[in-house]
């Protein structure tokens, strides 16, 4: 099979092929494979040549009535020669259902055995289910014809209707023709899905999920429709263009390898967003943010699409920014606070790492390289700098430019320069300088306060970036002693603040690493600071200082112990306890300290749980955290039996699996095997979600058999769907079990490279990322990982994952050495 599509090949083909129309016929009645017949009409330069992509077993192919030699098909590409001015190509192929969330994915519901299908064509997976010119700037109008079991429904990018029932009981569905679409945005959904519909402002909205999740979907309907309707109204007003693709369906599907996919008019979401148990307000806001994000893509990415993947930011940065910007109008929570404690930290970690890259104008020579840039930089950093841009130019000019951009490029493609031109025409001054500073550089500055100044240290690439921010002085009780707006244009900027803790960027506006003028031991209580944005800046600074070994993880752990009993916000509390559990008590702690720190944190959180308001989000979050940390087997068993449950709390199915995962990890200390408990729970919850929970809990057991099974699922080909491999990965390398898995960690380094022989796309990088043996950090393992990274045989699709893992493991080694030195 040929390698990934290169940018040079895409540019060449785009000069040859134009005016594409596509018709796809799928026969989905067989369960072992499906037949895909694609008819493409297109224009070309007479006598020219190019190729079509189709990743299946070709049965026949015919160009302008002449049979092609299918022996020339290399598994993905089929040459097309002697093209005419107007062409018709018909390709028929037998294709495999996928089980990795890409291509035409098949899921067998564990609850009732029903089959469900959905297609993900991103980034280069479209040829896994239909023949196409698979690049974002060769848009096509498309129509579907689907033959499927009679009880199924079919969805696509345009409205689908059942047009025939055949004597064998199968049904034929056909879609209307879509507007022009990039191939990576094409989808089909087929199965016995349950649905809800509403009309909003002339647009038909649809919600879908597997039939076994009908009651869970029912509970979410009002909230999801309300969020969708509000965002639609806001986007219509902002962009001056109505929803570009007619109906708007949102389908909650199993085994999604991403949170969601913005298929035009038919978005697929990971069905984990259909919460089966009690959830916090922050979790509902997270779902609302994802809904807003994917809806924004209908304009940014679907209506106007980047020409090539180097301009990915035109999709993701804008959708990320708008998801937070529009919710400012519709929620009591400040979404930018949530952004600061979660998404911004994700982006800063990526931007400070070895695989940092610009927001825009990235070097993406092929589709494999492009996939690596779907990270915290393209999403969070891009959103953060857009937020600063809106503050600079004003929202009206920002939106005027966007409207001109959509008008000029609707149903077409665009580049960075096109959007800058639109803003320039809208009267925005200095836009080229802004783009040069924020979009085409990489890394981030460090802003360090002293008693009388803020020092700016540029990132490694030497770029000089301006910052506008607010600096404050905080007193010992967290009170604001003074405040000053600061424009930073030089290496040192004078400030005039009263003595106290000087905090640059107290409103969390700047894209930079922030360091106050005093070490964390001398900070006031973070929760005593009134402005929650300043709290977020302090927490992010503390996390960064630990990673850079400027502050001991032991010191940071003491801060967490002091602050968590007083933290009222469930999302921030979740962020802190997760950080403390995974890093301060885990990978950044000496092995001999990990268990003790977990016990100390569990004790503090247990005491806080006893005083939490009944039925509150904070109570739920504390209960989750204590379950994750406790060594009290009897208490966990009591929760399962319905005793010892805090008043106001509910032990629902989701929480039961959390309890069982912890019992599985404690199997060695309890002296009692838990397989029987896990089997009984799977019988109780025989859903597909239950199967994944079972796998993760089973692999979490401190038993050689469990670890070996999880390891083999990762490094050897098998029949398990990728979703189950990911679940097993989550239970393999765990703190508290390092001695048991050290040998497997070494074997992981030796064998992970071969996984590219039987996995591809997102599935390959996600499995490698989830299973990276960070908990087993030692200088020796770090050396082995570095050798793997240096090896020429490491596939490009794995290199980013290993590079990021090595970077974090190196920081863990330095941090552990710091703590050991401090203890001497």
UniProtKB/TrEMBL annotation:
Q: What class of enzyme is it?
A: hydrolase
Domain Peptidase M1 membrane alanine aminopeptidase spans what residues?
225-433
Give residue ranges for domain ERAP1-like C-terminal.
520-805
According to UniProt, the reaction catalysed is: Release of an N-terminal amino acid, Xaa-|-Yaa- from a peptide, amide or arylamide. Xaa is preferably Ala, but may be most amino acids including Pro (slow action). When a terminal hydrophobic residue is followed by a prolyl residue, the two may be released as an intact Xaa-Pro dipeptide
Q: Per the database record, which ranges form the Aminopeptidase N-like N-terminal domain?
A: 97-185
Question: Which Gene3D superfamilies does the entry mention?
Answer: Neutral Protease Domain 2, tricorn interacting facor f3 domain
Q: Which BP terms in the Gene Ontology apply to this protein?
A: peptide catabolic process; proteolysis
Q: Which UniProt keywords apply?
A: Aminopeptidase, Hydrolase, Metal-binding, Metalloprotease, Protease, Zinc
Q: Name one GO molecular function term.
A: zinc ion binding
Q: Which cofactor does it need?
A: Zn(2+)
Instruction: Please give the InterPro entries that the UniProt record associates with this protein.
Output: Aminopeptidase_N-like_N, Aminopeptidase_N-like_N_sf, ERAP1-like_C_dom, Pept_M1_aminopeptidase, Peptidase_M1, Peptidase_M1_aminopeptidases, Peptidase_M1_dom, Peptidase_M4/M1_CTD_sf
Q: Which GO terms describe its cellular component?
A: cytoplasm; extracellular space; membrane
* Keyword Hydrolase recorded: yes
Q: What is its EC number?
A: 3.4.11.2
Q: Which residues form a coiled coil?
A: none
Q: In which family does this protein belong, per the annotation?
A: Belongs to the peptidase M1 family.
Q: Which NCBIfam families match?
A: pepN_strep_liv
Q: Spell out the protein name for this chain.
A: Aminopeptidase N
What organism does the UniProt record list as the source? Answer: Propioniferax innocua
């Amino acid at each position: 099979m040929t390698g990934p599509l290169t940018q040079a090949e895409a540019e060449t083909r785009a000069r040859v092929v134009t005016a594409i129309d596509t018709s796809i016929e799928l026969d989905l009645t067989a369960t072992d494979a499906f037949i895909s017949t694609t008819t493409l009409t297109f224009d070309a330069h007479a006598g020219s040549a190019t190729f079509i992509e189709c990743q299946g077993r070709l049965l026949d192919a015919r160009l302008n009535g002449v049979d092609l030699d299918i022996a020339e098909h290399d598994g993905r590409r089929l040459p097309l020669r002697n093209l005419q001015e107007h062409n018709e190509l018909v390709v028929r192929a037998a294709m495999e259902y996928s089980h990795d969330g890409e291509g035409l994915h098949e899921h067998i519901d564990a609850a009732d055995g029903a089959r469900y299908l959905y297609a993900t064509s991103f980034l280069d997976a479209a040829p896994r289910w239909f023949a196409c010119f698979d690049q974002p700037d060769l848009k096509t109008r498309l129509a579907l014809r689907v033959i499927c079991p009679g009880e199924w429904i079919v969805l696509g990018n345009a409205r689908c209707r059942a047009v025939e029932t055949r004597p064998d009981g199968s049904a034929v569905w056909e879609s209307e023709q879509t507007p022009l679409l990039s191939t990576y945005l094409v989808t089909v959904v087929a199965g016995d899905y349950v649905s809800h519909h509403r009309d909003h402002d002339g647009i038909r909205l649809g919600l879908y999920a597997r039939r076994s999740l009908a009651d869970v979907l029912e509970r979410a309907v009002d909230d999801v429709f309300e969020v969708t309707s509000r965002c639609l109204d806001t986007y219509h007003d902002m962009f001056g263009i109505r929803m570009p693709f007619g109906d708007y369906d949102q389908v909650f599907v199993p085994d999604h390898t991403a949170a969601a996919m913005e298929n035009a008019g038919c978005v697929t979401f990971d069905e984990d967003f259909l919460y089966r148990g009690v959830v916090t307000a922050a979790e509902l806001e997270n779902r609302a943010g994802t809904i807003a994000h994917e809806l924004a893509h209908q304009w940014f990415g679907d209506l106007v699409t980047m020409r090539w993947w180097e301009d990915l930011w035109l999709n993701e940065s804008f959708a990320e920014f708008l998801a937070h910007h529009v919710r400012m109008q519709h929620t009591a929570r400040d979404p930018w606070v949530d952004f600061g404690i979660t998404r911004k930290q994700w982006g800063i970690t990526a931007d400070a790492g070895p695989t940092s890259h610009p927001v825009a104008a990235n070097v993406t020579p092929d589709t494999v390289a492009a996939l690596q840039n779907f990270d915290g930089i393209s999403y969070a950093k891009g959103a953060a700098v857009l937020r600063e841009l809106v503050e600079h130019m004003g929202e009206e000019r920002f939106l005027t430019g966007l409207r001109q951009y959509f008008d000029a490029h609707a149903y077409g493609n665009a580049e960075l320069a096109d959007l800058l031109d639109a803003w320039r025409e809208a009267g925005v001054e200095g836009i080229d300088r802004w783009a040069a500073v924020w979009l085409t550089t990489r890394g981030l500055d460090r802003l360090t306060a002293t008693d009388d100044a803020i020092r700016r240290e540029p990132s490694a690439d030497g770029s000089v970036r301006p910052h506008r921010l607010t600096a404050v002085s905080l007193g010992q009780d967290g009170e604001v002693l003074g405040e000053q707006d600061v424009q930073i244009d030089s290496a040192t900027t004078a400030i005039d603040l009263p003595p106290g803790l000087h905090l640059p960027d107290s409103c969390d506006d700047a894209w930079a690493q922030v360091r106050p003028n005093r070490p964390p031991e001398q900070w006031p209580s973070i929760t005593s600071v009134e402005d929650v944005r300043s709290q977020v800046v302090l927490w992010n600074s503390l996390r960064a200082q630990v990673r850079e070994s400027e502050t001991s993880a032991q010191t940071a752990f003491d801060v967490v112990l002091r602050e968590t009993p007083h933290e009222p916000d469930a999302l921030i509390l979740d962020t802190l306890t997760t950080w403390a559990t995974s890093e301060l008590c885990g990978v950044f702690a000496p092995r001999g300290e990990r268990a003790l720190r977990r016990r100390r944190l569990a004790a503090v959180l247990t005491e806080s749980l006893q005083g939490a308001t009944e039925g509150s989000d904070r109570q739920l979050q504390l209960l989750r955290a204590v379950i994750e940390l406790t060594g009290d087997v009897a208490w966990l068993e009591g929760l399962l039996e319905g005793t010892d449950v805090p008043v106001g709390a509910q032990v629902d199915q989701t929480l039961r699996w959390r309890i069982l995962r912890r019992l599985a990890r404690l199997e060695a200390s309890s002296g009692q095997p838990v397989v029987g408990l896990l089997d009984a729970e799977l019988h109780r919850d025989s859903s597909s979600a239950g199967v994944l929970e079972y796998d993760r809990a089973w692999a979490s057991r401190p038993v050689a058999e469990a670890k070996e099974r999880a390891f083999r699922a990762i490094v050897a080909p098998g029949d398990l769907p990728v979703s189950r491999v990911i679940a097993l990965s989550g239970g393999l390398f765990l703190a508290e079990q390092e001695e048991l898995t050290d040998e497997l960690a070494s074997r992981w380094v030796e064998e992970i490279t071969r996984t590219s022989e039987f996995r591809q796309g997102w599935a390959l990088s996600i499995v490698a990322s989830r299973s990276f043996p960070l908990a087993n950090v030692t200088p020796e393992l770090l050396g082995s990982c570095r050798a793997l990274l240096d090896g020429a045989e490491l596939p490009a699709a794995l290199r980013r994952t290993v590079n990021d893992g090595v970077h974090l493991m190196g920081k863990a080694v330095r941090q552990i050495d710091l703590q050991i030195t401090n203890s001497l």
